[in-house]
Amino acid sequence: MNKNPRPSGGPFFVKQKHARFSRKSGTVMYVFICSAGHSGSTLLDILIGSHPQGLSLGEITLLPKNIALDSQCSCGRPISSCQFWSPIVTGFGKTAGIDFWSRPYELDFGFIKASDEIDRRHQTNARMMYRRISYGLQYLSMRYRLPGQSVFRRHSIDAAKNKADFFDYIQTQSGKSFVVDSSKHYLEAINLHSAAPADTKIVLLVRDGRAVFHSGLRRGMNPKSALASWANTCAALMRYLLTACHEGTSFPSSTRT
Ligand SMILES: [Zn+2]
Q: How many angstroms does the Cα of residue 170 sit away from the middle of ligand 1?
């Protein structure tokens, strides 16, 4: 195993390459926690995942970054020597024919935007701009029911399928009935639901906006951003999320932000 994994340095986002499982609905349930930042999603993830049949996975979208940085796992070990993640990453890589320890970002679960431990070689300004444009266009596409799927949406759906395959692989190794992903972003929730509607359960976590605002200020955010984070996610977007998942992937035309 490569103890010093480095990012691949490849293109912005690698297309789905490792969805090789033939999915069988009902094998494992994916619980996705959707919330604004600083709302307690990690705690809720741990609480739900502590069920005997559950498995708490944290913000799984960030796993490639954690592999690249060999971050410390919650068990206290670096992820490369963690007794849970090490065999999972190695084993899933074998099924895909990719060594994710040396090419972590080919484990593509969607856009990575870390706020605490950041891989500056990967999380560049250009990628953050690309993410913003992609999410903006995905939102507009669903909001106004534009025909067809944009290349951005297709990439996000492929990334969600990768995630579903990864969850299925974890189920085969752990025997658990459900896994918990606290990646939070509402578009990721919609895309995971689109990829596996029968298996995805979305939990909307809403913390008191005043507490989120205060938490944002304590972390150095400016007041406007600290408030917008909660308001955008909870007051408007979660309304769309519920409807989008009920209707497929389209936002209702009668709803306004
Ligand atoms: Zn661990």
A: 14
